[in-house]
Amino acid sequence: MSALLEVTALSAGYGQVPVLHDIGLTVKRGEIVAVIGANGAGKTTLLLAICGHLRLTAGRVVFDGAEISREPAHRTVSRGLVMVPEGGRLFPFMTVQENLELGAFHGRAREQRRARLEEMLDLFPVMAERRRQLAGRLSGGERQMVAIARAMMSLPSLLLLDEPSLGLSPLMVERVFDLVRSLAERRGISVLLVEQNVGEALEMSSRGYVMERGRITKSGEGSVLRGDADVQRAYMGL
């Protein structure tokens, strides 16, 4: 399986404050990869740096064979690299359908907007029922589903998911994770997942990385990390 995303010696931060130090990771095609760590470890900053929202101070990001280290976020989206931020960040005073349509803003996605919209409404039946409803009136789990569907409107080959289960009920967490598995297994979409629910994240990931203070300190198969005593003690309460 070839690498879709390759991050090499990446460093980044905010102004004069360094956050990420010499990060290296890969995501293969059709693979789910988890990034775990404590709050403040730099996980969200890593996603922002990969997709072009944050300027690198060192290192390289190669996506689908092309270096995108200096490309802004709107260009990385058109290449197929799409981030779903923590909380989804929907436009609350726009309808579900309007939020979805905003996902198809670049040329290639815009050409397929109508067909893609119907596909998303079939994939998420609750959205078909509430397509005219304001997004701000949805439950937390429904908002997360709309956020993922909006990202899918952009025709991604790699989704960067930032804490998709945050604040959701156990039932909705299960539904969101089932959706992520389905996108990888049935549609061949790669996923780089930042997640606080460490056990679930590693269980469904083929590989994982542990971040501490802006550095990768462990990596390996998801099942191996899930059984690692240090990971269990630090992040799983075992």
Walk me through the structure.
With 238 residues, the chain is of the alpha/beta class. It is built from 11 helices and 10 strands. The mean pLDDT is 91. The strands form 2 sheets. A 6-stranded mixed sheet has the order 6-7-8-3-9-10, with helices on both faces. The longest helix has 18 residues, at 170-187.
The residue fraction in helices comes out at 25-40%
Alpha plus pi helix count: 11
Provide the low-confidence segments as ranges. Answer: none
Structural class estimated from helices and strands: alpha/beta
- Characterize the main sheet: 6 strands, mixed
- N-to-C SSE series? EEEHEEHEHHHHHEHEHEEHH
- Mean pLDDT, to the nearest integer, reads 91
Tally the beta strands. Answer: 10
| Rg on CA atoms, Å | 17 Å
Cα distance spanning the termini: 34 Å
Record the strand order, biggest sheet. 6-7-8-3-9-10
β content, as a range?
25-35%
List the helices and strands and how they pair.
Blueprint: E1 3-14, E2 17-28, E3 32-37, H1 43-50, E4 56-63, E5 66-67, H2 73-79, E6 81-84, H3 96-102, H4 107-111, H5 113-123, H6 125-129, H7 140-152, E7 158-162, H8 170-187, E8 190-194, H9 198-204, E9 207-212, E10 215-221, H10 222-226, H11 229-235
Structure described in brief:
With 238 residues, the chain is of the alpha/beta class. The protein has 11 helices and 10 strands.
Q: Can you tag this structure with a few keywords?
A:
6-stranded mixed sheet, about 240 residues, alpha/beta, 10 strands, globular, 4-stranded antiparallel sheet, single chain, 11 helices
